[in-house]
Amino acid sequence: MTLKLLHKEYSIRAKDNKGIPYAYRTYCEHYQNYAGKYKVTMPLKHKPGKSIETDWAGATLKLIDRVTGEDIKVYIFVAALPFSQLSYAEGFLDMKSPSWLTGHINAFEYFGGVAETITPDNLKAGVIKTDYAEPFINESYRELADYYQTVIVPARVRKAKDKPSVEGAVGFVSRQILAALRNTQCFYLEDLNELIWEKLEELNNEPFQKRKVPVGVSLKRRNFHI
């Protein structure tokens, strides 16, 4: 959940009730006052290129079987950079290890590089033993990390705050991309992914609300292989 989304929903409700909504900045100030009074928070400070967070979205899309006309479920891989909040999404026909690894490789290509650490959810495709002190990583996943010279640091079980950026990205992708494509009819996964990436570009190219784009970071998709 983001303040930007909450403000958008609030503005729609206010206008529907013939009211005048607060500006985004004023809305954020009211929220900060509320948060300071009713809950304790600790902002996380992220460094550029420090980490990539990965997960599968709970929502899915579908393809149409050309022979039977039946629906084929498509699972959505999501990756996010905590500092810039850039996201990557791609559809797969399953959530098995080859799809999980391919999603990571394509995310690295999209972002234009590999972070120092990868923080995934505790899925069998990536983590066999969910021990935060000494997790047992899937062998193929470990080999991928070794090849790209990065380190896998899985989130703790049922600890969404260990990977808040991808949790937010999953929600954002689900609302802004998957919801928009829910009625789209595609026969091929490649065609569906092209539609996902078009929507993804729109989201990643939206201007930052509170800070400038960091020097050296491009919001355009990279088209090269690592």
What does this structure look like?
Helix 5 (164-178) crosses helix 6. It is built from six helices and seven strands. It is globular. Residues 129-133, 158-162 and 213-226 have low confidence and may be disordered. Strands 3-2-1-4-7 form a five-stranded mixed sheet, with helices on both faces. The chain has a two-stranded antiparallel ribbon with strand order 5-6. The protein has helices at residues 3-16, 24-38, 97-111, 139-147, 164-178, 189-204, and strands at residues 51-64, 71-80, 87-92, 117-120, 127-129, 136-137, 151-152. The chain is α/β, with parallel strands linked by helices. Helices cover 37% and strands 18% of the residues.
Short description:
The chain has helices at 3-16, 24-38, 97-111, 139-147, 164-178, 189-204, and strands at residues 51-64, 71-80, 87-92, 117-120, 127-129, 136-137, 151-152.
What's the number of helices? 6
Strand runs, count: 7
- Helix proportion: 25-40%
- Mean pLDDT comes to 78
Share of residues in strands: 15-25%
Sequence stretches where pLDDT stays below 50 over 5 or more residues = 129-133, 158-162, 213-226
What is the H/E string?
Answer: HHEEEHEEEHEHH
Q: Main beta sheet, described?
A: 5 strands, mixed
Q: Walk across the major sheet and give the strand order.
A: 3-2-1-4-7
Radius of gyration: 19 Å
- Amino- and carboxy-terminal Cα gap: 32 Å
Shape: globular
Q: Classify the secondary structure makeup into a structural class.
A: alpha/beta
Any chance you could write out the topology, listing elements then pairs?
Elements: H1 3-16, H2 24-38, E1 51-64, E2 71-80, E3 87-92, H3 97-111, E4 117-120, E5 127-129, E6 136-137, H4 139-147, E7 151-152, H5 164-178, H6 189-204
Parallel strand pairs: 1-4, 4-7
Antiparallel strand pairs: 1-2, 2-3, 5-6
